[in-house]
């Protein structure tokens, strides 16, 4: 099974689903075994550049040399440095690279002849309608398609002896807003033309809307042309003159060119899909194939139904996700929801330190400056699907691993990779398999946004839980010794005691009192007294079991509550404590001994309270202290 990496950027909130149509058709026609790995982002959607940085980071995920071919759809990326970075990485991969729509030096190309298609439109405006003042409204400056369409506009003016006026040029992006702004700008400069040549249908629609708002009429006052033959072009009023081409056909041709390169039979480095000029009412023409209003209304009704369903689904998904308490549970809910909407497998991979938040009560603080906004860490935790054994699994990105368990069947698959990020901060990535329903009906953006919002909310909840845990630990810990303080009696010791009493299991209670503390404080100072107390505490930590609750009960008193401990174990523990204190005292070379008196009892009768047993252990400690004094 061959693998193709496809790097593509959405237009606003929309993914170009026609690319997937072209891939599916080629695979079906040629019975090809090619998996398509789509690295997709919505990097030009938000006004928040930090958000866009987080989106674009998905392009840095794949090790491109691991693929058999690379497809690039970079026409809508306005960040020239990022675009150049992607191109350089693709060239270094040493595999065939095909650029779609955008001609890039030294790369294969599959697209259309923008130049001659636009020449035909401008020629029509001049020769058929007598236009002598033409304004160009373009898309992204530096974009190849926009450049070709502009050159065609300028050269056709020159061909007919019409002077080129740079004041009649306005370029921004490919959205309706560009047309609205352009019309206002030309009106302010008193440069309204005979015709507007627009780089796409969105811009053309914006110009028409602005003209109507200003009291003008298209085509009575101005002619307008677009490009792309989007659905709105034929159904707009007036219907927009445009250029038709198929992105599905461009993808189909790209895969055919790639196959020829693989087989060594490629006759050219570029392949062109056909274009067709469609003249409609916006340029003063009569549509040969006018829109079917009934069909359009029906499609709009169905689109509204799907949109309503999507909003309901998003609300339902949001409700489910916000109730989740782990990242794994989040992904599980999303997968269940997507399965109902004809999607395949789902994979969620996250930075291991962030994933561990849900498994560890207290983690060391991680400085914010170690988090990535450019690239990904070498290792990623597989959050979903989780293993049946519940063990944490990681993959190594540095070895080219992207999928935990890619399907090895002969059926071709589409894997869509999307960034999971909090603004510019990289968190992980999501993989959706065969999610055609989401992309065809343009539900992908809302689905991803809802999911990432839920991840961020859960992350905040886990951080808050961690901070509360840390505060709680500070509240019940003694700062001098590191043991629990007396506040832990209610929160920890008593619950442990009650649990074991109810299950008829014994609990060992040890009471420890520091010897000579008044003497040490009076003769050597309180700092030395604190040293003696902390030394005894360190011995307690060394020998008491991990599941015990060891407390500094008073100034020089300690209590240890030890689950499931009998008389023999307690006696051995007492002796170990005394021996360690003796060794510590000898090795410390202090002017005073570090000693303690110890008493213990086994709690095995639930009739008596924990406090009763502590008092009893205290009494035995005083007997031990009296005996030790008598023996000196």
From TrEMBL:
InterPro entries: GGDEF_dom (IPR000160), LacI/GalR-like_sensor (IPR046335), Nucleotide_cyclase (IPR029787), Peripla_BP_I (IPR028082), Rev_trsase/Diguanyl_cyclase (IPR043128). Keywords: DNA-binding, Transcription, Transcription regulation. This is GGDEF domain-containing protein. Gene3D superfamilies: 3.30.70.270, 3.40.50.2300. Coiled coil: none annotated. One of its GO terms (molecular function) is transcription cis-regulatory region binding.
């Amino acid at each position: 099974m061959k693998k193709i990496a496809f790097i593509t950027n959405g237009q606003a909130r929309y993914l170009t689903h026609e690319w997937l149509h072209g891939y599916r058709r080629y695979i079906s026609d040629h019975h090809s075994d090619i998996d398509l790995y789509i690295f997709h982002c919505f990097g030009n959607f938000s006004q928040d550049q930090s958000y866009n940085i987080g989106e674009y980071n998905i392009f840095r995920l794949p090790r491109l040399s691991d693929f058999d071919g690379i497809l690039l759809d970079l026409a809508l990326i306005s960040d020239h440095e990022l675009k150049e970075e992607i191109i350089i990485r693709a060239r270094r991969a040493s595999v065939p690279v095909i650029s779609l729509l955008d001609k890039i030096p030294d790369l294969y190309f599959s697209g259309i002849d923008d130049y001659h298609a636009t020449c035909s439109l401008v020629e029509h405006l001049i020769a058929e309608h007598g236009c002598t003042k033409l304004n160009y409204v373009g898309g992204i400056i530096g974009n190849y398609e926009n450049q070709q369409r502009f050159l065609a506009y300028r050269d056709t003016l020159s061909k007919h002896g019409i002077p080129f006026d740079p004041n009649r040029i306005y370029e921004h992006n490919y959205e309706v807003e560009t047309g609205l702004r352009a019309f206002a700008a030309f009106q302010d400069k008193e440069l309204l033309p005979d015709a507007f040549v627009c780089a796409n249908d969105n811009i053309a629609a914006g110009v028409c809307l602005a003209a109507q708002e200003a009291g003008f009429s298209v085509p009575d006052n101005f002619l307008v042309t677009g490009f792309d033959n989007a659905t709105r072009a034929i159904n707009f009023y007036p219907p927009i003159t445009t250029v038709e081409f198929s992105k599905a056909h461009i993808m189909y041709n790209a895969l055919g060119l790639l196959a020829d390169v693989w087989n060594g039979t490629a006759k050219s480095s570029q392949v062109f899909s056909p274009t067709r000029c469609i003249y409609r009412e916006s340029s003063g023409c009569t549509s040969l194939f006018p829109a079917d209003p009934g069909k359009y209304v029906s499609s709009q009704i169905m689109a509204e139904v799907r949109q309503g369903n999507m909003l309901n689904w998003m609300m339902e998904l949001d409700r489910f996700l916000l109730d989740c308490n782990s990242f794994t549970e989040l992904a599980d809910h999303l997968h269940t929801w997507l399965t109902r909407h004809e999607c395949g497998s789902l994979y969620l991979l996250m930075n291991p330190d962030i994933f561990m938040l849900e498994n560890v009560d207290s983690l060391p603080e991680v400085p914010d400056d170690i988090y990535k906004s450019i690239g990904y860490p070498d290792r990623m935790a597989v959050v979903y699907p989780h293993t049946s054994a519940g063990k944490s699994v990681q993959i190594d990105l540095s070895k080219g691993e992207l999928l935990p368990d890619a399907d090895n069947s002969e059926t071709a698959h589409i894997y869509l990779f999307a960034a999971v990020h909090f603004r510019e901060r990289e968190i992980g990535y999501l993989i959706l398999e065969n999610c055609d329903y989401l992309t065809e009906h343009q539900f992908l953006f809302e689905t991803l946004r809802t999911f990432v919002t839920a991840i961020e909310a859960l992350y905040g909840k886990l951080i808050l839980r961690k901070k509360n845990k840390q505060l709680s630990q500070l509240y019940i810990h003694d700062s001098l010794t590191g043991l629990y303080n007396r506040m832990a009696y209610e929160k920890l010791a008593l619950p442990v005691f009650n649990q074991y009493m109810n299950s008829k299991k014994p609990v060992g209670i040890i009471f420890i009192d520091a010897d000579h503390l008044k003497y040490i404080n009076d003769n050597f100072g309180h700092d030395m007294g604190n040293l003696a107390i902390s030394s005894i505490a360190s011995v307690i930590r060394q020998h008491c079991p991990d599941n015990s609750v060891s407390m500094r009960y008073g100034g020089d008193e300690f209590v240890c509550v030890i689950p499931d401990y009998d008389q023999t174990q307690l006696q051995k523990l007492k002796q170990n404590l005394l021996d360690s204190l003796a060794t510590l005292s000898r090795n410390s070379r202090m002017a005073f001994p570090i000693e303690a008196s110890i008493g213990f009892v086994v709690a095995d009768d639930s009739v008596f309270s924990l406090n009763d047993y502590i008092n009893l252990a205290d009494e035995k400690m005083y007997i031990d202290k009296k005996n030790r004094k008598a023996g000196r």
